[in-house]
Amino acid sequence: MNTKTSKTLFLIILIISIALYFFLFSKVVITKDGNIKSNFVFINSEQASFTLKNKQSIKTITKSTISEMYLLMPELAAEINFNIRLVDRDLTNVYGVTGRADRKDEIEISISSSYKGGIEQAVKDGLIGTVFHELHHTVRGWTMYRNQFPQGIDTAAINEGLADVFAEIQVGRAMDKMSKNEDFALWSKEIISLPKNADYNQWMNIHPDGREAIGYRAGGYLVRAALKNSGKDIVTLSYYSIKDIYQLAGY
User: Fold this and answer.
1) What angle do CA 159, 243, 190 make, to 5 degrees?
2) What confidence tens digit (pLDDT) does each residue in 172-208 have?
3) Mean pLDDT along residues 116-139
4) Residue range 195-224: average pLDDT?
5) How far apart are CA 143 and CA 97, in angstroms?
6) How confident is the model over 37-61, as a mean pLDDT?
7) Considering all CA atoms of the chain, what is the largest pairwise distance in Å, rounded to the nearest integer?
8) What is the 3-state secondary structure (H, E, C) of 43-54?
9) How far apart, in whole angstroms, are the C-alpha atoms of residue 234 and residue 154?
10) What is the CATH number that goes with domain 37-140?
11) What's the pLDDT at 13?
12) What is the rounded CA–CA span in Å between residue 26 and residue 131?
């Protein structure tokens, strides 16, 4: 091989190497957050309004959380619409913020105007966990519209438990301030024995006997049991069926 041919071959290899480097580098940059577009609509309450600072904090935290979520469960919608609603009710038990996954590409977030420390404190304390929770629902298909699961409190408990435990692991704390010393094993048996058309509000929100969020809290208990018994991580478990999770939990 003569010198001219060697130089030409070297240049070709160099060009290919440089092109490959930039292709791989740009790919990492582009797919880091999946290029997911987020849109925000802010709705004030009768008694309070979002400030510009509130809105910017909410956007920044939400977008950052989406990026983190994408690295764990990338099956997010390419564009997600967030309806951010200010509410004049006490949400202390859930750190000032709650939410609802309406569709794969639409999430409603409610933020308490009466939270101790104000709206900005509620955003700081509760928004990340709630966004993780609701994004989890969109990936799993547990949404208000085009829901991919059958009716039943047993189904709701597992799906809400998965989202809660997933969010808890990401933020490093429980998703609520309610007691952790209840007989959740008994609650779980109650849920399993319920008819498929059992009252959702009673079992997931306020029960006539005074208990709160029975389905959420029992669901968290069941998911933790499934994690412990199986040795699997929360992301892996999030793709399991309702039936399989109950079995892993020992039910």
Assistant:
1) 70
2) 999 999 999 999 999 999 999 999 999 999 999 999 9
3) 98
4) 97
5) 18
6) 97
7) 91
8) ECCCCCCCCHHH
9) 19
10) 3.30.2010
11) 53
12) 28
Give 31's pLDDT tier (boundaries 50, 70, 90): very low
Residue 61, CA atoms < 13 Å, CB-side half-sphere: 22
pLDDT tens for 151-175 read 999 999 999 999 999 999 999 999 9
d(CA 144, CA 159): 13
Q: What is the 3-state secondary structure (H, E, C) of the chain?
A: CCHHHHHHHHHHHHHHHHHHHHHHHHHHHHHCCCCCEEEEEEECCCCCCCCHHHHHHHHHHHHHHHHHHHHHCCCCCCEEEEEEEEECCCCHHHCCEEEEEEECCEEEEEEECCCCCCHHHHHHHHHHHHHHHHHHHHHHCCCCCCCCCCCCHHHHHHHHHHHHHHHHHHHCCCCCCCCCCCCHHHHHHHHHHCCCCCCHHHHHCECCCCCECHHHHHHHHHHHHHHHHHCCCHHHHCCCCHHHHHHHHCC
Least Cα distance to 128 among 90, 163, 167, 161 occurs for: 167
User: What residues does 100 pair with on adjacent strands?
Assistant: 108
Pair of tokens at residue 1: 């091989």
Indicate the range of 14-18, 37-41, 228-232 predicted with least confidence. Answer: 14-18
Q: Where are the domains of the chain?
A: 37-140, 153-249
